[in-house]
Amino acid sequence: MNIAEIRKQFPILHQEVNGHPLVYLDSAATSQKPRSVIEAVKRYYELDNSNVHRGVHTLGSRATEAYEGARERVARFLNAPAAEQIIFTRGTTTALNLVASSYASSVLMEGDEIVLTPMEHHSNLIPWQQAAKRSGAVLKYIPLQPDGTISLADVEKTVTNRTKIVSVMYVSNVLGVINPIKEITEIAHRNGAVMVVDGAQSTPHMRIDVQALDCDFYALSGHKMCGPTGIGALYGRKSLLEAMEPNEFGGEMIDFVDLYESTWKDIPWRFEAGTPIIAGAVGLAAAMDFLEEIGLENIDRHEKELAAYAYSKLSDIEGITIYGPREGRVGLITFNLDDVHPHDVATVLDSEGIAVRAGHHCCQPLMRWLDVTATARASFYLYNTEQDVDRLAASLLRTKEFFGHAIG
Ligand code: PMP
């Protein structure tokens, strides 16, 4: 991978922030966008913009082709069997809410179990809390090992024949850990449960094959993988999608409407009420082209190398705590410096042009498990370099100095 060439394709990276060249280390919150994605969205608005699935005119057909073409692109990216199994959503949050309201409400009964982990993002936690409250189902949690990993023996103990749904993140946005989704799916299926995967942090960084994983639902966000904000997707097993009721109603999703009764279109359109996010879908397709051209395997390798480099470089800083396992992680490092609040860390880094995130990362239960209220997090993507890590490490040393601590 030629990182210098890749960086040239991201206009935003070539600027100074607070008098320093920008080092963007917040891609787990949202990634930056390459010129090809920006151009695809611009081209769509300049040449093809129209509403979809209704216009008889030429622009209407072009917009429909672009939108449905994007659906096929997502299906190919995930190796889904068919484009009709891809529902466009606003992102992972909306995708998971759709499953937890539409699918879950039709299957969950009192006493059924929903199995999660304590590391889940609020997006894969609160929709299930709500589904449990509505149905009388109970929430169960696969415990975490001291290093934040999941043991399959614990999965075996937690999932039972009362479990209807297992919903787990593939990659943790805090611990960086890659969960054994294929194995968890196998255990879920053996117990007759459906497997839902939060793919917000995995899809940008590694090759995803939903058929090989054998999961039943898979959610992703476009903005974390070089695509625009406001677009994401839900992959679902065909038989499950076909049995699901829509959770939003209105234009575009109906077949026949009478004053008292209506019927729905086939999947996937019955889940896409209203004018969809057409330009977003076009941008997402361009992002997938971009990532595949570079190669997901290459991106994965580059980030793992960077994560290993960052882990060892940052561990040398006296008084730093890095959360999550050393091995088997993606390119993000969540940490705290002794006696310095993570918001102060992020503020000092920002004053040197380095963007990191500080807070609870939408994972309050995990923060409690880690026994902290907040952490700082540096997250890397295909455009980051070892020099970025060096700048981060040097700046952290200055942060310690600034707050009056000995330099390690
Ligand atoms: N799950 C995980 C693991 C995430 O990191 C995020 C975003 N931080 C989400 C879900 C929610 O994604 P979005 O805000 O794009 O819906």
Listed once per kind, the bound small molecules are: 4'-deoxy-4'-aminopyridoxal-5'-phosphate
How many domains comprise the coordinates?
A: 2
Can you tell me the CATH architecture of the largest domain?
3-Layer(aba) Sandwich
Fourth CATH level, the homologous superfamily of the largest domain: Type I PLP-dependent aspartate aminotransferase-like (Major domain)
Q: Which percent range describes the beta-strand content?
A: 15-25%
Strand arrangement in the largest pleated sheet: 4-10-9-8-7-5-6
Radius of gyration, whole Å: 22 Å
How does the helix and strand content classify structurally?
Answer: alpha/beta
Low-confidence stretches: none
In short:
The chain is an alpha/beta fold and about 400 residues long. It has 14 helices and 17 strands.
Task: Provide the descriptors you would attach to this structure in a database record.
408 residues; alpha/beta; Aspartate Aminotransferase, domain 1; Aspartate Aminotransferase, domain 2; 2 domains; 40% helix; globular; binds 4'-deoxy-4'-aminopyridoxal-5'-phosphate
Overview of the structural elements:
The protein has 14 helices and 17 strands. It has 408 residues and is an alpha/beta fold. The protein has two domains: 3-26 and 295-407, Aspartate Aminotransferase, domain 1; 37-293, 3-Layer(aba) Sandwich (Aspartate Aminotransferase, domain 2). Strand 11 (254-257) and strand 12 form a beta hairpin. The radius of gyration is 22 Å and the shape is globular. It starts with a helix and ends in a 6-residue tail after the last helix. The mean pLDDT is 96. Bound molecules: 4'-deoxy-4'-aminopyridoxal-5'-phosphate (PMP). 4'-deoxy-4'-aminopyridoxal-5'-phosphate (PMP) binds at residues 91-93, 121, 123-124, 169, 173, 198, 200-201, 221, 362.
